Amino acid sequence: MNEVILLNLGFTNVYLLKADSGYIQFDTGWKFDVKKYLKLLEKKKIALEEIKLIVVNHAHFDHVGALKSVKELTQAKVLVHEEDSEYLIKGISAEVRPLKLITKIFLKFLPKSWTFYESVEPDIVIQDEYSLSDYGVNGRVIHTPGHTHGTLSIITEDGDAIIGCLAHAFPLRLKPGFPRIALDEEGVWRSWQKIIDEGAKRIYISHGRSPSIEYIKKKLKKKQKI
To answer: Tell me, what CATH number does 91's domain have?
Structure first.
């Protein structure tokens, strides 16, 4: 079983997946998060060179803002979906679509300078899925569009599903649930179904406390009845 380790950077959760010869990292957080990230690694006694691969959930500033620095520090390879790769290369955030008033207000008053980040040239660009077996992990990176067109998730054979912004919790919403920002709402529903079909047992999200898999199943069942 590959251990999933949470690095709580504040607004954004970053995850490490224990591999045979190091770790696979999921996202990097804001550009302001590098010092906290380094302190958390030190606290958990994880060396920078142990990070072998960084999987990009999607190209938004709060997920890849620190990517340039972390890539240089760890020398890890960066994997992204082709739909979000151009944003990464340009150092800009993928298109956003707030679904609720609270996220509209949040985005409106967010300083524009915070949304830009240093551009990164990805090492691996995928269209569909990517096996993690070469890193000693029984799992795959899969395409789960909805939040953005290029959103990616990690699913392991043990049932761990790191899905990033396919669901949101505090501070974007009070309780874990449907994302408050999504470019394609129906795409989110389809991706929720996909992770269920892939055998997900535990969910890990990027903002706040993760929902249970039972919650996801319940919401999907309710949606199907409409």
So the answer is: 3.60.15.10
